[in-house]
Amino acid sequence: MRKQVLKWKQKGLSVALIPTMGFFHEGHLSLMRAAGSKADHVVVSLFINPAQFGPNEDLNHYPRDLEQDARLAEDKGVSCLFCPDAKDMYPPGFQTWVRVEGVSQGLCGTSRPEHFCGVATIVAKLLIIVQPDMAIFGQKDFQQLQVIRRMVRDLNIPVNIIAHPIVREPDGLAMSSRNIYLDAQEREPALSLVQALRLAEKMVAQGNRSGPEVIQAIKNHIQSFSNTKTDYVFLGDPESLKPRREIVGETLLALAVWVGKTRLIDNILLKQ
Ligand code: PAF
User: Fold this and answer.
1) Which pLDDT band, with edges at 50, 70 and 90, does 272 fall under?
2) Across-strand partners of 269?
3) Mean pLDDT of the 96-112 span
4) Residue 116 to residue 121: CA distance in whole angstroms
5) Distance (Å, whole) CA 267 – CA 255
């Protein structure tokens, strides 16, 4: 991988990296299109990173389809689909972990305590291996994006981190490889997330600035659907991820909801 990137760089060509765990959907494809418009070569890494899954999470069932992913990546003009093995990424004796404090805490970090350490470690490794000029991440995992931005700043990693807007299904559901877990009856409650975000947006547009009121309205909306359980609803500063009671300036509204056995996340930036 390094030799290939070096050859491109010696010719003065730029390289974008898109880290993924595969099972591509339109969200990934739009990252590939965006990367292709910004860099001469696009590298997509595909690695289902065991270190970011908790003991009772879906590592063994995480959806996979390497052949289809390879076809889709080729169609989108990706120069290289980089699929390292777990034994190469975490060889025997591996003992170095990247832990980003602050922004890894709260939100998803509360119910998934080791998750962001696994994410930061693998993304740091991928950035060091590929040495891209830029790396592109979807904004659906907003906290992940902030963890990576913080890590890149703190460790002086010479890469430009680019955020890509959330891509949604026609009914509004944020695209995710995990949407495949939803059965026909779960599709409607799954829409409670985007509906709740839009409800909040409307409340703010009508002049409501109260964080607790908006959060309560969201929880009520989600609870009105069967088979849903709210993990968290967060309102706060989009950069530090510190909670805010009042909606002032640009405010992140992020939520995680269980629909049956599937945990879904979504977010929006509220603007006054
Ligand atoms: O967002 C993901 O798919 C993963 O967390 C990432 C960034 C590829 C790291 O494994």
Assistant:
1) confident
2) 252
3) 98
4) 8
5) 6
Ligand 1 contacts (CB < 6 A) are 19-21, 49, 52, 119, 122-123, 141, 144
Which whole number is the average pLDDT over 23-32?
Answer: 98
Kindly give, in sequence order, each residue whose CB lies less than 8 Å from that of residue 149, ignoring residues fewer than 6 positions away: 161
Contacts of 45 (CB under 8 A, 6+ apart): 17, 18, 19, 20, 81, 82, 83, 84, 126, 130
Active site (annotated) includes residue 28:
yes
Query: Which helix H or strand E contains 225, and what residues bound it?
Result: none
Residue corresponding to tokens 């990706």: 78
pLDDT beyond 80 at 99:
yes
* C-alpha count within 13 angstroms, C-beta hemisphere, residue 176: 17
Partnered with residue 233 across adjacent β-strands are: 255
Query: What are the structural domains of the chain?
Result: 2-164 (3.40.50.620), 177-271 (3.30.1300.10)
State in Å: Cα 99 to ligand 1 middle: 15
Alpha-carbon dihedral angle through residues 204, 208, 214, 217, given to the nearest 10 degrees: -100
Q: What is the dihedral of CA 85, 52, 133, 76, to 10 degrees?
A: 70
What is the predicted pLDDT for the residue at 29? 98
Q: Which long-range contacts (CB under 8 A, 24 or more apart) does 160-163 make?
A: 160/133, 160/134, 160/135, 161/134, 161/135, 161/137, 162/34, 162/38, 162/134, 162/135, 162/136, 162/137, 163/136, 163/137, 163/138, 163/139
Residue 254 pLDDT > 90: yes
- For a substitution probing ligand 1, which of 123, 136, 265 has the most ligand atoms within 8 Å of its CB? 123
